[in-house]
Amino acid sequence: MTAVPDQPSRSPFIADQRLLRLRFRPEDRGEALPLLRVNALPQRGMDGEEDNPRKDRNESRWEPLPVRERLSFLGGDSSSGQRRLLCVTAAAGIGKSMALEQLDAAAGAATGSQVVIWTHFSDLPDDWESYVDLPHDGKRHSFFVQRLKTQFAGARKQGFQHLPRRIGDEDAIRDWVLALLRCGQLILAVDGLDEVPEKPGIAKAKQLREFLRQFPRAHCVVGGRPNAITQILWQTLFSRSGKESDASSDWKFALTDLFDDGQVRRALGPERHDQLRFLQGEVQFSGRTIEVLRSLDIETFATLRSLADVYWHGIQKSLEMDSIKEGGKFPSWMTKEQLLILLAAIGVTILMWNRDPHFTDDNDGLPSDLNESIPIPVESDSTKTSESIEHVVDIQELYRRVCDRLSRIHSEWSDLKQIERLSLTKDQIRELVRLNTSYLECSFFRSQDPKRLEWRNVTQRDFFAALWMVNGASDQERAWFHERIDQARDARDTSIAEAWRMVCGMPSEAFALQGKLSNQRWLHLIRPLYQRPDEEWHRSGRPTELMYRCWANLLRRAGFLTTASWSDEDLMWATTAAQHYFYLDQPGDLPSGVTMRDRYAWVVVGGYLREYVMLRKTDPNALTITNEDLETAMRDCNSLAGKQVRVGRAGEKNNVERDYTLPYRFTLCAYAVTNRLYDLFDEHHSSRFGKYTDWSPYPRGPVVNLSWYDSMVFSIWSHSMLPNEWIWEYSSRAESRNPSGGTSRYYWGDEKTKLGDHAWIDENSSEAEDSGTASRKIGEHAHSVGQKTRNDFGLYDTLGNVWEWCMNRYESEEIDWGSGKPTGDYPVARVLRGGSFGNGSFDARCSFRSRLGPSYSVGSSGCRVARAHYP
């Protein structure tokens, strides 16, 4: 196969991006159209799990293509005599162009007889005769000839052997191309089906179809987003009969997938890749995302800590790098800031659609031309029928609400300068709908409500809704958002939950759209997250994930966290400094290096950290519980900053024995956090789990069903912290050694027969605690703390009873037995240690490591808190 390159490949890792090919089930009757609509395609969730309600119906139809078969699948086999008509699709930025580039680049290194000509859809001729220089209208047109002439010189330098000798002879080139077409040795690769306006796009597609009909052995590979394929070009190019109602096609279809961790590492480099762990696995790594991340300067890249950070900087950079597909320039009728505010208004309008606190049916005061219908391509939500797609839909309702919101908010907030001169017209709205850059996709489809549109990229919608909430939200909108904290906490409404996450992680630069007041709006918005549960707030429990996601931003605004590119250790010390300061009745001078940046942020942080202190002062029962289960139970563990200790164990495949230096002096609680202690923080926790008392029935039993977020936010509230896993392991083993001098399996040595005396595991946890009557069997469950034999540091139940969350992320040392290579880290997962009442003896070892995503919990997951001490 020979390629005539138009431009070099832009991607360093295109050769192994995963490609999925469409395989029909018998019930599909060969109808591809319903499976290609944007709301039917499989999508990957944030943690690498499939997160699509249509997974069971559509996922199995997309079959992964082995890398070794990729080139032959893209280009076909000229010796087979079968024509290759292939369409490569995906959402914005997932790698359609890269797949076509791979066909081009890989073919260039081959020595076969096929020739690949790459072009953009907009560059195709307006009549099919012009493809091959056939006489037309008394003139000769030369699309292939002129294109190839300009590329032959470079192609010869690359060693292509099958080019005509007389590269300046147009007749020779034309004859050569015709011979290739008749022999089935030419592949036309066309990118950008979605990047040409509808009318000229349909016209070009008709001529491309006619060209392929005239030359039945010509191969064609095209790439474009699903909406262009299914909404605009299906009848013209892809439908087998050329009828809109025909959902079958002679074309094959492929879907490009996201990139795995190894590909991302090769693309970004080790330094940037390692910094991605702070994003907690939130980002879907498409080709465009990686391209944007690579374009950021290293200082900006180092500050990325949330998905909102990536979206903010990605969209900013994308608007600099790209332009509106039609016209090639940024719209002259608005500034970049006005565009962001407008998109934010659209995002929040769609999010609040059926529950909008502002919307009325009154049209008064709205632009008159919004009473007209605005035709744009929109998909039906149905994936079960082959009925024709309606290409025109009335989006008057959406923009009527947007204009209502803009005019209303402008009158309420005098600092909303960006929309002062912004008035929408029908033509401008059409232009806005076509706005598609590398990282910004204004693509919509119709929901079940015939008047309502959905944003194709729902995460982008949630980002812009959050941007509105921190810049232009009215009192009613903020109240609407607050009323749904419980829904976000329980993920009962995933859209609300994602919008709240975006608000929590929104970078401070995003507040600059509306000046200083935006920072105060953000603080007003997130303050209820930190209020105590009562009849108004957090009726289903504290929103711990949202609280943790806000915490670093709060500490930065308050002045305790002084760097934008903070690490977990930086955040820990900033939290410790705030805890020490607000523990005092009358705080004195600020800690060294701390400057109060924002008084209101200071109030929010102080109010949360003073809650534990005031509870101990005003509630005698709380004072007793905190003293018995925490304050008087802290153990020194013979710790000293800089002390070298041994962790791991010989033969442990994922925790080899080695030296570890203690980073600071610390104390660790003798007990896991108990039910009665955690109830002081969140009395609603146990009620969220139907079988909670089956797992932990005793007041002084360890609290269970804790997520990592629950554990972290509780530790901050109680003026504590979670230990990292090496501090936990050192403290659990209590410096015990085996007879050969290595680290021991348990804190009493290596004798497994003594495990029942020291730990609650599955073999002994079914016995009920003796309460004056005979013991009875009630099933495996957690037991009250402090009943088993303690270790030499005075710690109870570090093995068995409940798994204990640790602060750090799970980093793998394990070697894959097949490849002999490391299995890789788990940037999302956090560490669990110690085993539990429901696990066997294998897990109840000091060196055993487990992991779980930070938002997940199990019926045996708890925690134990520590406190770090300044040198």
From TrEMBL:
Comp. bias (Basic and acidic residues): 51-62
GO molecular function, one term: formylglycine-generating oxidase activity
Gene3D superfamilies in UniProt: P-loop containing nucleotide triphosphate hydrolases, paralog of FGE (formylglycine-generating enzyme)
Enzyme class per UniProt: transferase
Keywords (A to Z) from UniProt: Kinase, Transferase
InterPro entries: CTDL_fold, P-loop_NTPase, Sulfatase_Mod_Factor_Kinase, SUMF_dom, SUMF_sf
Entry keyword annotation includes Protease: no
PANTHER family xref list: FORMYLGLYCINE-GENERATING ENZYME, SULFATASE MODIFYING FACTOR 1, 2
Annotated protein name in UniProt: Serine/threonine-protein kinase pkn1
